[in-house]
Automatic annotation (TrEMBL):
It is found in: Cytoplasm. PANTHER family: TRNA SULFURTRANSFERASE (PTHR43209:SF1). Pathway: Cofactor biosynthesis; thiamine diphosphate biosynthesis. The gene is thiI. One of its GO terms (molecular function) is ATP binding. This is Probable tRNA sulfurtransferase. It holds the Pfam family THUMP. It is an enzyme of class 2 (transferase).
Length: 405
């Protein structure tokens, strides 16, 4: 069977110097993981491109996988052919014969030549190949700007020549895991999964941290966070999910802190716990879904007082986005329906009716002095439950559920 090939263009990655190898390895690792079910795929990274070769006929499946891998700017199926004009023309005609050409469509040929010894220059290659296609497909007009089909002929310096006809947009960004590890504060809302997605696309490996407060919060609320994690795993690798029990802390806050300040104190507890989880899991940064002014805890004054408890970098990729932009992304990465489920998380259950939007540092510290901060944090960390969630999680859960019926 003929070997198939896809050529991957790196985008931003190609500007990286010494680290390029590491970036390529991360990308290759993810591609290998995502294509485990497609047999015998071979990956060849080189300076400017990555080639993927395989023999199975499942083109479509591989194309769907590659569309969602961070760090790929675009990719195209390529067809190797001997460096010989007759062979090139013959192969070009074969490729066009596989298209379903309609009246009114157009094409152009673009030639690239790194082998300056080749018998024709780029202009001549374009004209000769264009002529044979035009002769066979007389209803197909030549169009220089935005043609329906663009055939690229690349004459490489070493080996052979390559033809390509279709090009697919990649996800852009940087390879997953090439920019450190972040711990994502993942609630069940719309924002935090998008924050995670954006950092993942930028190359950051993600672990998810969810604060849950059973019996005040339901098992469905926890499940929601896990399903969101599965959706995120689609863009990276399986994700470590940390479920932190938070009820005891919230009960203590409710008992000792005035309602108006409880949100601030609660958030400070979350960050203290995050800090220790970062340390224990060797991560580099906290990621959350805060957006300036969205709710009381996200006014600039609140954020300052909340932030005071940690010196770990906090990444807030959504800080300057509007809700409708977040919703658009939620639809794009398919988290909208899950985030839209009605189950309340711990913040909502304990939400004060009138939270203070300009809390004062000294007052907050005063209230906190009534609480055993260290003990409560330690207890929450020690009872945190960890599991790995992969992108198949939702499908597996549904299958298990169907078996029960
Ligand atoms: P989201 O912001 O994810 O839509 P939300 O709007 O209910 O959920 P906010 O009150 O806006 O949450 O909280 C701001 C950020 O704090 C969230 O984006 C998330 O990163 C973090 N956070 C809130 N609640 C939780 C939780 N139960 N577990 C983990 N992180 C949380
Ligand atoms: Mg929010």
């Amino acid at each position: 069977m003929e070997e198939k090939q896809i050529k991957i263009h790196y985008g931003e990655l190609s500007t990286k110097g010494k680290n390029r190898k590491m970036f390529q390895q991360k990308m290759a690792e993810q591609i290998r993981h995502k294509t485990k079910h497609i047999e015998r795929i071979k990956i060849f990274p080189n300076r400017d491109f990555m080639f993927i070769k395989w023999e199975q006929a499942r083109y479509e499946e591989l194309i769907e996988v590659l569309k969602d891998i961070p760090g790929i700017s675009r990719f195209e199926p390529v067809y190797p052919v001997a460096k010989d004009m007759d062979a090139i023309k013959k192969r070009a005609l074969e490729l066009f014969s596989e298209l379903n050409i309609q009246d009114g469509e157009s094409f152009k040929v673009v030639a690239k030549r790194s082998d300056k010894e080749f018998e024709l220059d780029t202009y001549e290659i374009q004209r000769e190949v264009g002529d044979v296609i035009g002769e066979v497909y007389q209803n197909l007009a030549v169009k220089m700007t935005r043609p329906t089909y663009k055939l690229t002929v690349s004459i490489h310096l070493k080996d052979e020549a390559y033809l390509s006809l279709l090009s697919y947009q990649g996800l852009q960004g940087m390879p997953y895991g090439s920019s450190g590890r972040g711990m994502l504060m993942l609630s069940g809302g719309f924002d935090s999964p998008i924050a995670g997605y954006l950092m993942m696309r930028r190359g950051m490996e993600i672990e998810a941290v969810h604060f849950s407060s059973p019996p005040y919060t339901s098992p469905q609320a926890l499940e929601k966070a896990k399903k969101l994690t599965a959706k995120l795993a689609h863009f990276g690798m399986p994700i470590k999910f940390h479920n932190v029990p938070f009820a005891k802390i919230q009960e203590e806050i409710k008992a000792h802190v005035p309602d108006s300040e409880s949100m601030t104190v609660m958030r400070r507890f979350m960050l203290r716990i995050m800090d220790q989880l970062i340390e224990r899991n060797n991560a580099d940064a906290i990621v959350n879904g805060e957006s300036l002014g969205q709710v009381a805890s996200q006014t600039i004054k609140s954020m300052r007082v909340i932030n005071e408890v940690t010196s770990t970098p906090i990444f807030r990729p959504l800080i300057a986005t509007d809700k409708n932009e977040i919703i658009n992304l939620a639809e794009k990465i398919d988290t909208f329906d899950i985030s839209n489920e009605p189950y309340e998380d711990c913040c909502t259950v304990f939400a004060p009716t009138a939270p203070h939007t300009k809390p004062k540092q000294e007052k907050i510290e005063d209230y906190e002095s009534a609480l055993d901060i260290e003990g409560l944090v330690k207890d929450a960390i020690e009872n945190t439950h960890i599991e790995k969630i992969d992108e198949d999680y939702i499908r597996k859960q549904e299958a298990d559920f169907a078996d029960l019926l």
